């Protein structure tokens, strides 16, 4: 199983930013290193990827169950599914067994999936999502603004209660590095693109109008953190001096 990197997740509550959990990401550098060393073989499309997702979920739930059930914390764990066909009925059945074996509370789990999965017009998908949500699992959509998106699709899924929130990448609001500028100008490295900030601030407002929560992820600068606050994002994640000061000093969920 690929090594896991943990990114703190923060929420805005009562005009203050608090840590609310962690997001588990596979360590891409470790995956590349293993492939170069021949330790990982190409997996077949579908079942192999699904097995990897479930293996990671089992290990994450096993190791973090004591933390999320602690009386001192009310944190949640977030994981993005790599399988483009998940969640399906087999995934739901396997996840139910994972919850039973690890004593992990379903309401402390957030699963993020790509928007293309929501586009599938499938009764089985709708049933799988409905079961997960009934258990208390939150369903989020990732990479909004990076892949082909449809507000009408999100509006339909939000109206049916099958989506909890939308995640956007903070890199989307940065000034493109290849953008032409006068030779004598020297913009700061964390300068935001004014057009992009207006667009994604409006997108955040549109998601709220649909009843969805919003998350700005992979924050790397104070400017991006300030944008997340000014645009009204409900949650954010990443590393900058402001967020690092708020981050819990407890040990990360997993070694």
Written overview of the protein:
This protein is α/β, with parallel strands linked by helices. It contains 9 helices and 8 strands. The chain has helices at residues 28-36, 47-68, 89-102, 115-118, 123-135, 151-159, 194-209, 222-231, 241-246; strands at 4-13, 16-26, 76-80, 109-114, 138-142, 165-169, 213-219, 235-238. Strands 1-2-3-4-5-6-7-8 form an 8-stranded mixed barrel, surrounded by 5 helices. Helix 2 packs parallel to helix 3 (89-102) and helix 7 packs parallel to helix 8. The radius of gyration is 19 Å and the shape is globular. The two termini are 14 Å apart.
| Main β-sheet description | 8 strands, mixed, barrel
Number of helices: 9
Mean pLDDT reading: 83
Distance between the termini: 14 Å
Query: Which class best fits the helix and strand makeup?
Result: alpha/beta
N-to-C series of helices and strands = EEHHEHEHHEHEHEHEH
Share of helix among residues? 40-55%
Extended strand count: 8
Spatial strand order of the main sheet: 1-2-3-4-5-6-7-8
Which shape, going by the Cα principal axes? globular
Short account of what is shown:
It contains 9 helices and 8 strands. By secondary structure, it is of the alpha/beta class.
Main traits of this protein?
9 helices; 8 strands; eight-stranded mixed barrel; globular; about 260 residues; single chain; alpha/beta
How are the elements arranged and paired?
Layout: E1 4-13, E2 16-26, H1 28-36, H2 47-68, E3 76-80, H3 89-102, E4 109-114, H4 115-118, H5 123-135, E5 138-142, H6 151-159, E6 165-169, H7 194-209, E7 213-219, H8 222-231, E8 235-238, H9 241-246
Parallel strand pairs: 2-3, 3-4, 4-5, 5-6, 6-7, 7-8
Antiparallel strand pairs: 1-2, 1-8
Helix pairs in contact: 2-3, 7-8
């Amino acid at each position: 199983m690929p090594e896991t990197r943990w990114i703190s997740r923060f929420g805005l509550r009562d005009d203050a930013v608090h840590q609310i959990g962690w997001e588990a990401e596979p360590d891409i550098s470790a995956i590349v290193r293993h492939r170069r060393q021949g330790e990982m073989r190409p997996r077949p499309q579908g079942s192999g990827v699904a097995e990897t997702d479930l293996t990671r979920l089992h290990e994450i739930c096993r190791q973090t169950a004591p933390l999320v059930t602690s009386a001192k914390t009310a944190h949640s764990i977030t994981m993005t599914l790599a399988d483009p066909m998940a969640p399906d009925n087999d995934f739901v059945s396997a996840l139910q067994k994972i919850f039973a074996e690890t004593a992990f509370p379903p309401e402390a789990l957030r699963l993020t999936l790509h928007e293309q999965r929501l586009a599938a017009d499938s009764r089985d998908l709708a049933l799988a999502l409905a079961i997960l949500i009934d258990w208390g699992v939150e369903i989020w959509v990732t990479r909004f603004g990076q892949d082909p998106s449809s507000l009408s699709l999100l509006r339909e899924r939000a109206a049916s209660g099958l989506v909890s929130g939308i995640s956007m990448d903070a890199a989307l609001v940065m000034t493109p590095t290849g953008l032409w500028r006068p030779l004598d100008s020297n913009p700061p490295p964390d300068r935001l693109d004014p057009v992009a900030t207006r667009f994604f601030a409006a997108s955040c407002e549109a998601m709220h109008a649909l009843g969805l929560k919003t998350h700005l992820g992979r924050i790397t600068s104070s400017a991006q953190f300030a944008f997340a606050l000014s645009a009204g994002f409900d949650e954010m994640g990443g590393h900058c001096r402001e967020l690092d000061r708020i981050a819990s000093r407890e040990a990360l969920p997993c070694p």
